[in-house]
Automatic annotation (TrEMBL):
Name of the protein described by the UniProt record: Elongation factor 1-delta
Family according to the record: Belongs to the EF-1-beta/EF-1-delta family.
Keywords from the named record: Coiled coil, Elongation factor, Protein biosynthesis
Coiled-coil ranges from the UniProt annotation: 60-94
Phylogenetic lineage: Eukaryota, Metazoa, Chordata, Craniata, Vertebrata
Domain Elongation factor 1 beta central acidic region eukaryote intervals: 135-161
Species for this entry: Odobenus rosmarus divergens (Pacific walrus)
Ranges of biased composition (kind: Low complexity): 34-51
Entry superkingdom: Eukaryota
GO molecular function: guanyl-nucleotide exchange factor activity; translation elongation factor activity
Domain Translation elongation factor EF1B beta/delta subunit guanine nucleotide exchange: 170-256
InterPro entries xrefs: eEF-1beta-like_sf, EF-1_beta_acid_region_euk, EF1B_bsu/dsu, EF1B_bsu/dsu_GNE, Transl_elong_EF1B/ribsomal_bS6, Transl_elong_EF1B_B/D_CS
Gene3D superfamilies: 3.30.70.60
Amino acid sequence: MATNFLVHEKIWFDKFKYDDAERKFYEQMNGPVAGSSRQSSGPGASSGPSGDHSELAVRIASLEVENQSLRGVVQDLQQAVSRLEARLSVLEKSSPAYRATAPQTQHVSPMRQAEPPVRKAAPAAEDDEDDAIDLFGSDEEEDKEAARLRAERLRQYAEKKAKKAVLVAKSSILLDVKPWDDETDMAQLEACVRSIQLDGLTWGGSKLVPVGYGIRKLQIQCVVEDDKVGTDLLEEEITKFEEHVQSVDIAAFNKI
């Protein structure tokens, strides 16, 4: 009866086996715990140090390989620097300044350098050499060059301005010239008006326009330059012909 009862009960008889397996799994993952220190001291514990030694050997080998590659890079850099130094020395020897100073340094002996007179003459030679090289030039030469360039630019500007066409302001004027009466010779009156010649004055077309009672006026066109000829000057010149002209009026005035 009791046996049948135990058969139907759910009892975990082999739970200790699963506990031991779980403990061993965590010991392998995280190392042995304090409670299992005695078991770790057995024969199976010798596998840990051998694994550490193998890992250290791998790391040392990788470091040696990296060190060798770095040494190769350093050697390449040293060779590149040496080539650059050789090239720089060649360029310095081929420069004009080095050529100017080279003969002086070759002909001077160590004994002569030790003598006081040669030491006094050395600064003078250096001054002569500086004057001969004169990398920056003197201020006087720069002033002359600047003055020459300024004069050249002013001359070019003046020539360009002279070639450029100057815009002249002009006006078109239509004048009404009235005679005294119907007996005035209009052909003679027009000839008198056209006889006026001024700088900047150009006469144009003309016609006779009836006024009334048989009287006709002269309507004449002209073009004037505003800076040279004005309307007051035209009226004054035309009214000088008193025998033919009674008055002068401006019928139209337009800017061109």
